[in-house]
Amino acid sequence: MSIKIVGKWYIKTFNKVTKIIKYQHNNLIKNGIKGFLFHGVPGTGKTTLAIEIGRYVALNFGGISNPKDYNKYYQILDCSTLAHARYGETEAHIHKVFVDAINSKNQGIDFSVLIFDDADGLFITRDYGNKLEAWYIGQINVFFHELDNLDTSEICVILTTNRLDLMDKAVIDRIYSIEFPQVPIDILCEKLKQMGFDLNFNSGEIKKLEDEIKNNPIKYKTFRDVEKKVYDYYITNIIEDDW
Ligand SMILES: Nc1ncnc2c1ncn2[C@@H]1O[C@H](COP(=O)(O)OP(=O)(O)OP(=O)(O)O)[C@@H](O)[C@H]1O
Ligand SMILES: [Mg+2]
After folding, report:
1. Is 11 in the pocket of ligand 1 (CB under 6 A)?
2. Which one of 223, 226, 229, 231 would you pick to mutate in the ligand 1 pocket, going by the greatest count of ligand atoms within 8 A of its CB?
3. Would you say 50 and 164 are in contact if contact means Cβ atoms under 8 Å apart?
4. Which of 5, 43, 54, 174 could form a disulfide with 224 if both were Cys (CB 3.0 to 4.6 A apart)?
5. From residue 121, how far is each of 36, 40, 172 by CA, in Å?
């Protein structure tokens, strides 16, 4: 199920990225922006926004009605798992992901979004000089090769990371970077209200939680912190009361 995105900045960023994708697709721009690098501290919504963009593409380019088919339009690659594959397998996998996206055209898929989640695991900086192993250089070169040949009217990549410092500079130079800022308190409260509403909290309960979040800015910094608080409250005060 798709989540409800809150926050003006997120909606603006969603619109910006989808507008670029749509423009490049509709105008057959083959050598445009290859993709986006979403970076910022943990829990600020990078993966969520990437997935929502993938869903948008599935809905708008595919004309599909079954949500199960969405995943044909976007792929999420968990890079920490991918990077731990056996020698040579990671390169083969990266290559296959791009080849599959190109071939999907034959199955009526007009546009593919490839999400490399937690990309730092794969693209750790080459600044370590000659200490880096050949396997690593191999896999990063495969990625560059695929990216350089990518037809931007049909495919776009989104990389996410909370470790920009570990990302290879050549990756950063090739795609468009977007920094995800610390989530402002009013947006965290908006998230709380939306969750509280979905979980049937009454207005007093929502107000209590809102005050707690507002009074503890060190403890509640990210969407994840708010979600945890709301679910903890839900389980201890609402569900357990009924047992
Ligand atoms: N714009 C948003 N509106 C509402 N909820 C959001 C938004 N962005 C993220 N969330 C919620 O916050 C949680 C954390 O988001 P997400 O996993 O996307 O963060 P992340 O930046 O990818 O974190 P990490 O760096 O640890 O991978 C998700 O479970 C999601 O439900
Ligand atoms: Mg993430």
Report:
1. no
2. 223
3. no
4. 43
5. 17, 15, 14
